[in-house]
């Protein structure tokens, strides 16, 4: 299992964090999503989904919720 961390410019509200968890949690290969203090950490199975796909989909989802990504890095 791999992890990727994505930092956003401000902390998510509870409703946006829940929306992100629900959307990403439905994807095959996503094992866990932790949204806390402006950082989103996603655990995933590389046999089912690639890191680039996760970063792209998550970044797009974050921006649709009205937030901006400040950086991303793998753990």
Short description:
By secondary structure, this protein is of the alpha+beta class. 35% of the residues lie in helices and 35% in strands. The chain has one domain (2-74): Alpha-Beta Plaits (2-Layer Sandwich), CATH 3.30.70.
Q: How would you characterize this protein structure?
A:
The protein has two helices and four strands, in the order βαββαβ. The N and C termini lie close together (11 Å). The longest helix is centred in the C-terminal third of the chain and has 14 residues, at 51-64. Strands 2-3-1-4 form a four-stranded antiparallel beta sheet, covered by helices on one side. Strand 2 (30-36) and strand 3 (39-44) form a beta hairpin. It has 75 residues and is α+β, with helices and mostly antiparallel strands. It has helices at residues 14-25, 51-64; strands at 2-8, 30-36, 39-44, 69-74.
